């Protein structure tokens, strides 16, 4: 039996897509990567995923796992050879269990992040992972890239929110690891090995995740600063003043905030003229478990003192949940505004917070010296040192010609990241975009260990080839 016939027997004819029906799965959402595939297969259970994997192994056909296809590094897009099968997991979309006694939720990998958040909310619990793409990104993709988001400062990355996994291995076996234990020291931590592996070691089909009590109150403010060091000092002040209640601290450049309000007329500048002229802003939020009054009093005391000391130029404090949502909508609309303005060269980097301001100042200067007139699109999660440092073509110039300079721009920025003791990937993963860059910034020992793990868990070298590490080196 040929492979397509075998796949149809496993999942049904309607869930094996070829030709025009497969096209939406072959291009990433940014339109940066387009590949080809023998077929797109949509299994409806972990057992079907395992059968699909075994069929592909029998025919020695590469597999590309895919969730919501919202990744930024091409990790879920097949290459151009057309010899792979895309395994789309969006039919695995059930919430399996919500356990309020143990504060866990068990979900299939195809659930969108918003669906998981909503299921938690309906049980009066919080699942704190929050991303701009939460309406379309899936938990499987979040796990595959160890996604971060806007509340890492308090709750950690996706890895920190995960207790157990169900995984289909590269041989087509199922590891039933959906344990909700907070402690389990029985050997190697397989869970953490699969999280962040971008589908190169196996396919995550379900997860048991941590839940938290819903906060009684939250306070949100947009703050304006004369420079980035002032924003960093405010972060230190907020850590000291709010402690564990500090949930988010998002850095936004003037260029980003201005772009959002220009691209989306319904979104307005939150500041009057004085605050509107500042080069840097931060979105600050705390979550309080005591009372609304306690949260407000504490919030206004810390922010008010920062204004009095001249650290903050202006502040807009949300007076309601609706106003808080409006401020967050400005932050979350930055990637959409970027997309509408055209393509740019993206960098998802991690820098020690204490060195962030110097990194931005020096890297901006180096870029202007090398590529005069480029525009700096800088925003990110200052609280955990994760910066989205994107570079757009000079206004009015040829965007396509500028994008051809991506290797040189990447090299300049990533060399600077390395010099400041940072990482070239903070939360978006490696995918296709950065796999050739890893040898420049990781040690030979690290890369050798990664290759050994790949060979051990994917002996046929069929799981998402060409992602994270070069298949030719395996």
TrEMBL record:
GO terms for biological process: respiratory electron transport chain. It comes from Advenella mimigardefordensis (strain DSM 17166 / LMG 22922 / DPN7). Pfam families: FAD-oxidase_C, FAD_binding_4. It comes from the Bacteria. Keywords: FAD, Flavoprotein. Its cofactor is FAD. Residues 33-214 form the FAD-binding PCMH-type domain. InterPro entries: FAD-bd_oxidored_4_C (IPR004113), FAD-bd_PCMH (IPR016166), FAD-bd_PCMH-like_sf (IPR036318), FAD-bd_PCMH_sub1 (IPR016167), FAD-bd_PCMH_sub2 (IPR016169), FAD-linked_Oxase-like_C (IPR016164), FAD-oxidored/transferase_4 (IPR051264), Oxid_FAD_bind_N (IPR006094). One of its GO terms (molecular function) is catalytic activity. This is Putative FAD-linked oxidoreductase.
């Amino acid at each position: 039996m040929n492979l397509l016939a075998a796949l149809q027997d496993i999942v049904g004819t309607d869930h094996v897509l070829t030709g025009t029906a497969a096209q939406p799965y072959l291009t990433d959402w940014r339109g940066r990567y387009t590949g080809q595939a023998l077929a797109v297969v949509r299994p409806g259970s972990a057992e079907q995923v395992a059968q699909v994997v075994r069929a592909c192994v029998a025919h020695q056909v590469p597999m590309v796992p895919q969730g919501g296809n919202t990744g930024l590094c091409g990790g879920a897009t097949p290459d151009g050879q057309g010899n792979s099968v895309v395994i789309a997991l969006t039919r695995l979309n059930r919430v399996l269990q919500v356990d309020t006694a143990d504060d866990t939720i068990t979900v299939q990998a195809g659930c969108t992040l918003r669906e998981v958040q909503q299921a938690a909310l309906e049980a009066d619990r919080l699942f704190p992972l929050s991303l701009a793409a939460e309406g379309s990104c899936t938990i499987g993709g979040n796990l595959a890239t160890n996604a971060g988001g806007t509340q890492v400062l308090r709750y950690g990355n996706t890895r920190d929110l995960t207790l157990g996994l169900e995984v289909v291995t590269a041989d087509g076996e199922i590891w039933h690891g959906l344990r909700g234990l907070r402690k389990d020291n029985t050997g190697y931590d397989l869970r953490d090995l699969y999280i962040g592996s971008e589908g190169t070691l196996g396919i995550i089909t379900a997860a048991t995740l941590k839940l938290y009590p819903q906060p009684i109150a939250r306070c949100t403010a947009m703050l304006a600063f004369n420079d980035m060091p002032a924003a960093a000092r405010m972060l230190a002040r907020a850590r000291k003043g709010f402690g564990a209640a500090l949930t988010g601290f998002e850095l936004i450049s003037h260029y980003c905030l201005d772009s959002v309000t220009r691209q989306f007329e319904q979104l307005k500048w939150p500041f009057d003229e004085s605050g509107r002229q500042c080069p840097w802003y931060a979105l600050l939020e705390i979550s309080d478990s005591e009372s609304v009054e306690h949260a407000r009093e504490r919030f206004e005391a810390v922010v008010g003192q920062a204004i009095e000391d001249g650290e903050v130029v202006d502040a807009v404090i949300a007076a309601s949940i609706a106003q808080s949502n409006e401020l967050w909508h400005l932050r979350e609309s930055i990637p959409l505004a970027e997309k509408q303005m055209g393509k740019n060269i993206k960098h998802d980097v991690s820098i020690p917070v204490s060195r962030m301001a110097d990194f931005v100042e020096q890297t901006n200067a180096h870029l202007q010296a090398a590529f005069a007139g480029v525009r700096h699109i800088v925003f990110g999660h200052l609280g955990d040192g994760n910066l989205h440092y994107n570079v757009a073509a000079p206004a009015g110039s040829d965007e396509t010609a500028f994008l051809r300079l991506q290797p040189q721009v990447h090299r300049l920025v990533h060399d600077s990241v390395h010099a400041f003791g940072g990482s070239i990937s903070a939360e978006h993963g490696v995918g296709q975009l950065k796999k050739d860059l890893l040898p420049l910034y990781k040690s030979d020992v690290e890369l050798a260990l990664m290759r050994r793990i790949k060979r051990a868990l994917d002996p046929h070298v069929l799981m998402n080839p060409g992602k994270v590490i070069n298949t030719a080196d395996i």
